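Lecture notes, part 5. Sequence design as translation. It can be helpful to think of inverse folding as translation between two languages: the language of shapes and the language of residues. The source text, in structure tokens, appears below.
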């Protein structure tokens, strides 16, 4: 039987939406990550994918989760991001990685 890569994450309840989610990172708010000087705002278009946007703006499609963090997107798969949605795209992944590491070190 396959082992899920998520099996070690705790199930927590989102306080605002009261829905269960996985606690994959220390609690981080999108506002903590905003870098107004460098972030790009786009209108999400039909057919775009978060991994493609990450590849375009961050140089690696595996950073799609950073776009999710910055935009408070909790369920990025499927049609949860609708065309016309304004998305803030980071241009420097190191800012986000450093913030996460600081949170981990503090916890």
């Amino acid at each position: 039987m396959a082992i899920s890569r998520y099996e070690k994450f705790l199930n927590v309840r989102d306080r605002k939406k009261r829905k269960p989610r996985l606690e994959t990172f220390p609690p981080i708010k999108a506002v903590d990550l905003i870098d107004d000087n460098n972030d790009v705002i786009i209108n999400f278009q039909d057919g775009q994918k978060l991994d493609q946007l990450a590849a375009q703006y961050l140089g690696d499609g595996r950073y799609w989760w950073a776009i999710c963090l910055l935009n408070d997107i909790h369920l990025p798969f499927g049609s949860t991001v609708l065309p016309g949605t304004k998305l803030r795209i980071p241009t420097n992944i190191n800012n986000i990685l450093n913030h996460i590491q600081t949170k981990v070190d503090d916890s």
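The translated text above is only one of many valid answers, since several sequences can fold into similar shapes. The mean pLDDT is 79.
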